[in-house]
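name: query_chain
kind: protein
chains: 1
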Amino acid sequence: MKKLAVLSFVFVFLAGLIFPVTTIEFWHAMSGDRIPLIQSMVDDFEKANPDIKVNVQYTGSYPETLNKLSAAVQSRNAPHIVQIYEIGTRMMIDSGIIVPVQDLLDQDKSYDPGVLLEPILNYYTVDGKLYSMPFNSSTAILYYNKTLFEQAGLDPNRPPQTYEEFLEYARILTKKDARGNTIQYGFTWPTHSWVFEQLLAAADAPFVNNDNGRTNRATEAVFNNEAGVKIFELFNQLNKEGLILNTPREDWAAARQNFIPGKAAMLITSTSDVAMFEAGLAQNGYELGTAFLPVPDKNTSGGPVIGGASLWLIAGHPDNETKAAWEFMKFVNREDQQIKWHKGTGYFPVRKDAIQTLHYEGFYAENPNYFTSLLQLLLAKRNYNTSGAVIGVFPEARDIIETAYERMVAGRMTPESALAWAENEVTKLIKEYNQFYK
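structure:
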């Protein structure tokens, strides 16, 4: 036994000399059940690539991860790969700390970006260059409780399509007890500007000028347009009539907790929650329904904007480590890995072949709620409004829009004045940011 142990040690030692292991660091912002799911993808990669070790770390929310990256770059301790949310695209491009994915693609013809869904490829391509690797992509969709629809006398297979219908359904679905206390709301949401951005694109309207910052750097906000005002007016009416259950600002968890047990019958949030909602509603005796985002009227045709995040290569590492990181990025983008990720979350596959495989296997026929966001995306208009805005101050812009919403709800501003104020403040931020990149 001792000889066997010695031989094993010698074999491992020699293998290490013959096949040196390259170690890379991967930071991500996926919490909860997604942590072990990502770890399983890392395990799959390491089995297929025994010469590469991936140290994977959950680094908090998207903003927290971005802040940690900034600190790590300053201390020269940056990871090789970091997951950054979609609105960080302009900031990452301008940062000077990345290796554009396009640079690797130009050297490695084994990966064809043509396999990516066009709207996703368009979002992360700026000035003709793909800067990051799409990974977890989502859009906003309308979730609704089919059981509560039936109980209210509504057709569970006919969700609201327009703002007028949405408001009508919210009135029917809101219930009060004998004392006048609301025991069921028509609608809830995470009080997040992302929902405003998605509804704006669905209404085929821009967020900033210069074609949403895609044909030239954006210089001003333009969301105080007819579509933007209609969105604020809709939400203002929902509040006035007590049909909406607001959450603390940007509180995704609170919105889920309102929807899953039936405190609210409808919710607009990310498609990445499909798996969670199907299981959660079933445990409460409910059936989940999903639908496209409502639009101002049936003559309006836009589409959702890509949400979620992508993987960025950070510069300053040895070439062998950058190449190892690139291999990992390609691996998690593979068809089988994207299918695994899709089924485990609700984020849709970023690849066409993954969707085709799932379709042929009958997955979407058996799981229609996973298909809603894809169909909404594939049927959407292809233009700059639906490509999504690219600005370097997106987190701050969202904070301003959410402040405007809260002021409107408090009665301090009208929908028109709140949106006008927000647009002006965001324009100031854009101009200040652009001063550094003339």
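note: The chain has two domains: 2-138+306-369, 140-305+377-437.
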